[in-house]
Amino acid sequence: MPEVLQFEFMRNAIVAGLLTSIICGVIGTLVVVNRIVFLSGAIAHAAYGGIGLAIFMGWSYLIGAMSFSLACAAAMAAVMLKARHRADTIIGVIWAVGMALGVILLDLTPGYHVDLMSYLFGSILTVPETELFQMLFLCIGILGVVFFFYNDFLAMSYDAEFAELRGAPVKGLQFLLVAMIALSVVMIIRVVGLILVIALMTIPPYIAEQYATSLVRMMAIGSFLSMMFTLVGLGLSYHFNLTSGATIILVAGVGFFISFALKKMLHALNSQIAMDTPAYPKTEGRNKG
């Protein structure tokens, strides 16, 4: 792949993919262990309203998408805390309204014919260098917050009630996590689009969960896997002239099924070994006397 690096757009795409991969490994891990994949998907689709708003108002894509995503994420987090029994319905409404608003705003933008495919399935090959610095700043900020509150996130992810007993601000952490998911989604949309964003955020951490023995290792393995999927997907999309975002997700999907098959094979092998190993009765020492 050395000849690919002579093109600036490919170099930018690789950097954008690597930055996104780090976020997918870290935030995606928290999404998976907290079982809020549906919420993350809702934020991703609602973010389309921010894209439409940014284009309609003439703002930067990142500013519009981030602002709108954060507002939707805060509303969803509040719903989860105050009306949990109706959360799925209300979150679904926010999801649908956000997307519909984005489409309407794009229709109302004079003289602008948006390429829906670039937002639905990503446009990693068009990421400018200026946006890379914004992505880097965002990545550093999110990583700093996660590792500063790492112990609290760890406690909340596995036992929220225990975390509250320890004095951790669980409600505040939940709002913070949802906000970071919203910011991460805005980054990942650039790489794989809003339809496939949740796949890249969840597949690598899910695979990592099978082999990691701690939350931080799960984040590290998830980030590494995401980098591999992104680089392989970019290489295949370049050589076969395929859509980059969809190719990256397809590679991740293949990795998921390979991991699943290997896990099943190892489990069957271990079971067979256990069955073939003779069970020896415990020998007790002779009684004295």
Question: Key terms for this structure?
Answer:
mainly alpha, 11 helices, 289 residues, globular
Descriptive report:
There is one protein chain. The chain is mainly α and 289 residues long. It has one domain (2-275): ABC transporter involved in vitamin B12 uptake, BtuC. The protein contains eleven helices and no strands. It has helices spanning 8-33, 37-57, 61-82, 87-108, 116-120, 129-148, 150-158, 160-165, 170-209, 215-240, 244-276. Helix 1 packs parallel to helix 6 (129-148). The model has no long low-confidence stretch (mean pLDDT 84).
Quick rundown:
With 289 residues, the chain is mostly helical.
Estimated helix fraction: over 70%
What's the CATH C level?
Answer: Mainly Alpha
Q: Radius of gyration in whole Å, from Cα?
A: 22 Å
Order of helices and strands: HHHHHHHHHHH
Main β-sheet description = none
In what range is the share of β-strand residues? under 5%
- Summed up, the helix count is 11
> What's the N-to-C terminus distance?
79 Å
Query: Total number of β-strand segments?
Result: 0
The low-confidence parts are none
Report the CATH architecture: Orthogonal Bundle
